[in-house]
């Protein structure tokens, strides 16, 4: 965490205050906050300024294009983040539950993918196909995994070579990362977003993205390999690696 910590919140105004902690990513401290009299969300983490500049510029772009996202709220002097802290609009809504709900999530993801073709990679990150040759990228360190597991992951990612890339949300199949109302679907928690093959976002409950058998198998294997690598070696990662077929 930044040595300044939550004191940075004062850069959003003297009356800015933390309210209560929210369930957030393991890498960040996430709280509901009050800024200029309205409810918002503050996220404090150890990401670089370049990383946060990429994420906040992406969210502004998606908001301008009409996709529902948490929008960065600037500091009093106009910056979109300060000392590792980002403040964003609070999003109402509940998680997807039904097959129809997940179908709306799939439609939203496909809009995200269309709106970000050719987007530059998040600083310090690697795509799944980059990891066919690279060992590390942000949270991923393949050298920490068993070599046989790395070979299985790379075999899964090799099936994605040659596909067009765009921004992927990175964790949309977690219902906690989606806020739905009758008229909109909002993806929240863009901490894992990066440039990759869109298939990684489309392995959803009920196969809501409608992938056919072969496409679903390629996507599911690549996605399981990615989740195993990105959080190696917790219980979830070990379970996901077990789903990646032997070479």
From TrEMBL:
UniProt feature coiled coil, ranges: none
Transmembrane segments: none
InterPro entries hit by this protein: Aminoglycoside_PTrfase, Kinase-like_dom_sf
Keyword match Transferase: yes
Superkingdom: Bacteria
Domain spans labelled Aminoglycoside phosphotransferase: 19-222
A single MF term (Gene Ontology): kinase activity
Keyword entries, A-Z: Kinase, Transferase
Protein name (database record): Ser/Thr protein kinase RdoA (MazF antagonist)
């Amino acid at each position: 965490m930044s040595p300044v910590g939550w004191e940075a919140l004062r850069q959003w105004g003297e009356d800015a205050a933390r309210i209560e902690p929210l369930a957030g990513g393991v890498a960040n401290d996430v709280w509901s906050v009050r800024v200029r009299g309205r409810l918002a969300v503050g996220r404090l983490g150890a990401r670089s300024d370049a990383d946060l500049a990429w994420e906040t510029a992406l969210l502004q772009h998606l908001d301008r294009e009409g996709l529902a996202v948490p929008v960065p709220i600037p500091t009093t002097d106009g910056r979109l983040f300060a000392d590792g802290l980002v403040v964003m609009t609070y999003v109402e809504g509940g998680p997807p539950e039904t097959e129809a709900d997940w179908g709306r999530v799939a439609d939203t993801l496909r809009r995200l993918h269309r709106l970000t073709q050719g987007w530059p990679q998040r600083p310090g990150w690697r795509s799944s196909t980059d990891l066919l040759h690279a060992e590390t990228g942000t949270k991923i360190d393949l050298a920490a995994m068993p070599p046989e597991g790395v070979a299985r992951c790379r075999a899964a990612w090799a099936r994605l070579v040659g596909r067009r890339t765009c921004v992927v949300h990175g964790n949309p199949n977690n219902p906690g990362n989606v806020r739905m109302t009758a008229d909109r679907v909002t993806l929240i928690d863009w901490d894992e977003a990066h440039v990759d093959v869109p298939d990684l976002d489309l392995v959803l409950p009920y196969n809501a993205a409608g992938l056919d058998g072969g496409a679903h198998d390629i996507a599911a294997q690549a996605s399981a390999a990615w989740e195993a690598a990105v959080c190696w070696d917790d219980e979830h990662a070990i379970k996901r690696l077990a789903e990646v077929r032997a070479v």
